Amino acid sequence: MTMSPAQPAAPAPRTPGPRLDPAPPPRPPARMPADPPGPRGGRLRTFLRGRWLKTIPGRIRAHVVLCLAALVALLAVLTVSVGNARDSVQTIGHDAGPQVVATGTLYFALSDMDAQVSNILLIGREHNLGIGYDNSLRVYEMRRAEADAAAVQAAQLAGRDPALKRTVQEVLDGLGKYERLVGQAMQLDAQSDHAAGELPPQVVDAYRQASDLMKLQLLPKAYNITLDSGAHVRQSYETKRSAVLAGRAWVALTGLIALLLLIATQLYLARTFRRLLNPALVLATLGTVVLTAVGAGLLTAHAGHIKKAKEDGFDSILQLSRARAISHSAFADESRYLLDPGRADTYEQTYLDKSLSVIYPDLGDKPVNLENYYAGLEQKVAPYKPGKGAVPFLGFFGDEARTVDRGREADALGAVLAAYRTVQRNDAEMRRLASSGNRSGAIDLRMGRTSGAIHDFDNYDKALSLLTAVHQDAFDDAIRDADGGLRGWNAVPAAGAALIALLVLAGVRPRLAEFR
Amino acid sequence: MRGTRAVAAVLAAAVLAGCGLGGTEEESAADKDSLVIGVKADQPALGVKRPDGTYEGFDVDVATYIAGKMGVPKSRITWKTTNSSVREEALAKGTVDMIVATYSITAKRKMKVTFGGPYYVAHQDTFVRADAASIKNVRDLKDKRICEVTGSNSWRRVIEERKVAARPVTVGTYGACMDALAAGTLDAVSTDDLILAGFAAGRPGRMINAPFTDEKYGVGLKKGDLRGCEEVNRAITAMYQDGTAQRLLTQWFGRSGLKLTTSVPQFEGCT
Question: How far apart are CA B178 and CA A199, in angstroms?
Answer without folding.
Answer: 39
